[in-house]
Amino acid sequence: MDRRKFLSLSVVAAAVVPASLSAIDFRATKPDTWTAHNVKDAIKALYGDVALVEEGVTIKAPKVASNGGAIPVTVKSDKAAKTVALFQDANPEATVAVFTVPEGGIVNYMMKIKMKASGKITAVVEGTDGKFYVGNISLEVALGGCEG
Questions:
Q1: 55 domain residue, yes or no
Q2: What phi and psi values does residue 97 have, to the nearest 5 degrees?
Q3: What's the predicted TM-score (pTM) here?
Q4: CATH number for position 88
Q5: Dihedral sign, CA of 64, 62, 55, 42?
Q6: Number of H-type helices and E-type strands within the chain
Q7: In this structure, are residues 147 and 116 in contact, taking their beta carbons and an 8 Å threshold?
Q8: Residue 87 in 3-state DSSP?
Q9: What does residue 95 show for φ and ψ, rounded to 5 degrees?
Q10: What domain range is 130 assigned to?
Q11: Helix or strand run (H / E) with residue 11
Q12: What is the pLDDT of residue 22?
């Protein structure tokens, strides 16, 4: 393949890939989600008044986090999903992250979050079936992540 053909194919591929990723900018489209001070209000700002089904979502985190500044959290679900949202009730703002799940994507996300005190982590999975699935886990924080 010559250089010019390779470069022209690269330009076409670069234009197609972002168009195929239909991620939503939740900070722009749902700004109240990011300023809500409790989990209930954050879920309402993101999804509206929805019924949460307590099944199909697993959260893994240490029972005692030695450092609240870097708590490893894993969210898994066997449900076909549109979005996954993570919340906590220890910091001033409840929303941690919201992910758009690609069609056919597997919900198995690992991230590190900050929590200034002990509390509960909540994950909500918006299913492709229109239902909202929820999972919770409580944990103790030995050293706060926001205050040192």
A1: yes
A2: -160, 155
A3: 0.81
A4: 2.60.40.2470
A5: positive
A6: 3, 9
A7: yes
A8: strand
A9: -80, 130
A10: 23-141
A11: helix 3-20
A12: 59
Pairing relation of β-strands 95-100 and 81-88?
Answer: antiparallel
Give a yes or no: residue 83 inside a domain: yes
- Lookup result for tokens 């597997």: 106
Instruction: Give pLDDT tens digits along the chain (148 positions).
Output: 566 555 555 555 554 444 445 578 888 888 899 999 999 999 999 999 999 999 999 999 999 998 899 999 999 999 999 999 999 999 999 999 999 999 999 999 999 999 999 999 999 999 999 999 999 999 999 875 555 4
Number of domains making up the chain: 1
Residue 34 DSSP one-character state: G
Do residues 58 and 73 make contact, with C-beta atoms less than 8 angstroms apart? no
CA 49, 53, 58, 60 torsion-angle sign = positive
In a domain, 65, yes or no: yes
Structural domain includes residue 11 = no
